[in-house]
Amino acid sequence: MPWNRKHLLTIEEIRLDEIDQVHATAAAFKKILGRSVKKVPALRGKTIVNLFLEPSTRTRMAFDMAAKRLSADVISFDAATSSTTKGETLRDTAKNIQALNADMIVIRHAAAGSPLYLSRILDIPVINAGDGAHEHPTQGLLDTFTMKEHLGDLKGRKVVILGDILFSRVARSNIHALTKMGAAVTLVGPSTLVPHWFTALGVTVSHDLKSALADAEVVMLLRIQHERQASSHFPSLGEYTSMFGLNQARAAWLNPKAIIMHPGPINRGVEIDSELADGKRSVILEQVANGIAVRMAVLYLCSGGSPELAIAGAE
Ligand code: CP
Fold first, then answer.
1. Residue bearing the CA closest to ligand 1, atom 1
2. Is pLDDT above 90 for 155?
């Protein structure tokens, strides 16, 4: 089916064939990013506003770069010096950005549902760059794109997501993407951060790190998201690390071919040791690099571009 989605709000709502179209389009753009001239005119004349109301390094810079590689004009909203500090609402800020003739808004916000809200009050496409603990769809798309580069078809592949699942939008987007793609997903961590009710999403929940790691082909680490936790969900960071941190000794339980992933930012020495984060099995910086091509694909498709044209242009 052709891509006819104007917004990208969640992975939960998109179909497997749409995930495949993003991945195929991203693969085409990735070829272009490997050329000496890394730019295409696909979004020439369009203006994209990055409305980030929560901190970001990777997502914001990758969206910025993706838009520039597509020849769009990009405006990065600076929350600290904006009129939001004078009490302006999200609605008014977004309506003003639209009145200034922006063609698309990429939003990151601490409140779950903010992108959906903007999609209902604006006429222009809205892309979710992370909303609270709800979803981070482009992260799920770039993570599964990276897994496919290493493993091929993800059907039946064993993926372990380890850490603070409860407060993680990355976990939710990956769970939706991976289960649609037929992967076998196991969530691991303390029961306070990995409650049993996640099984309703079609995944396995485990609190036994050793047995979960034994047959994993991918292990994705997540940091503890203190900024979303009103109270502590474990006695201390040291105790969390001693029970669930990935270190060299525990990595020996993994299949030697298993890859190690992390969406970033990493808290070294807490959820993962530095030697593993920087080691041969780590694909963490590949994830970051793939974030550009995947976000180019999302911006392009939501602006009405066709995957076939992108693929033909990369040949
Ligand atoms: N993975 C991710 O969302 O990183 P940033 O918060 O730096 O964008």
1. 263
2. yes
Non-local (6+) Cβ contacts of 267 within 8 A are 223, 224
Residue (of 147, 122, 144, 165) closest to 14 by Cα position: 144
User: Is residue 291 scored above 70 in pLDDT?
Assistant: yes
Distance CA 143, CA 170 (A): 9
Cα 183 to averaged position of ligand 1 atoms, centre (Å): 24
Taking only the tens place, the pLDDT of each residue in 79-91 is 989 999 999 999 9
Q: Which of 50, 53, 54, 56 is the best mutation target for the ligand 1 pocket, counting ligand atoms within 8 Å of the beta carbon and taking the most?
A: 56
Q: Is the peptide bond before 195 cis (omega within 30 degrees of 0)?
A: no
Atom of ligand 1 nearest to the CA of 60: 8
- Interatomic CA distance for residues 113 and 130, integer angstroms: 10
DSSP 191: T
| pTM metric for this prediction | 0.96
Inter-residue contact 151 to 118 (CB < 8 Å): no
Measured in angstroms, how far is the CA atom of residue 178 from the centroid of ligand 1? 20
How many angstroms is it from 312 CA to the middle of ligand 1?
31
Beta bridge partner(s), residue 278:
none
Pocket residues: Cβ below 6 A from ligand 1:
56-60, 130, 136, 139, 263-265
Among residues 91, 84, 87, 89, the alpha carbon closest in space to that of 119 is found at 91
Provide CB contacts within 8 A for 272, sequence distance 6+. Answer: 221, 245, 246, 260, 262, 266
Q: Measured in angstroms, how far is the CA atom of residue 65 from the centroid of ligand 1?
A: 14
Instruction: Quote helix, strand, coil % in the chain, to nearest 5.
Output: 45, 15, 40
Give residue-wise pLDDT tens across range 116-135: 999 999 999 999 999 999 99
CB atoms within 10 A of CB 312: 10
